[in-house]
Design a protein that fits this description.
This protein has 114 residues and is of the alpha+beta class. The protein is 32% helix and 11% strand.
């Protein structure tokens, strides 16, 4: 649901105070917990440390991000992988083929040296 045009975009006041006197190139990471804050054009070039519930994830703001929320670029859930037994079997086969390819490459280089 979008915010009313009458109200305007939500930008955290404390966050704007933090960047008001700084230049984008020379500033360090600005830590924030304001995930709901929208990215304003004044924020372009700054690097924000957006909190995801556990740690601060660095987000470098570009022109394409204006209008989006800071929280969109700091995922709160860590994707592990899909699958169960079948996925494990596929990964084991892939590892075995990589090992075989590495051995073959090692043997071909050792035969060339002789």
């Amino acid at each position: 649901m979008s915010r009313s045009l009458k109200k305007g975009p939500y930008v955290d006041i404390k966050l704007m105070k933090k960047i008001s006197g700084k230049k984008p190139a020379g500033s360090s990471v600005i830590k924030t917990w304001a995930r709901a804050s929208q990215i304003a054009p004044e924020m372009i070039g700054f690097t924000f440390g957006v909190h995801n519930g556990k740690q601060h994830i660095e987000v470098f703001v570009t022109e394409d991000m204006v209008g989006h929320r800071l929280g969109e670029f700091s995922p709160t859930k860590k994707f592990i992988r899909h699958g169960g037994k079948m996925q494990k079997e596929l990964e084991q086969k892939r590892q075995q083929s990589e090992i075989a390819a590495a051995k073959a490459a090692k043997e071909s280089t050792s035969t060339k040296k002789k």
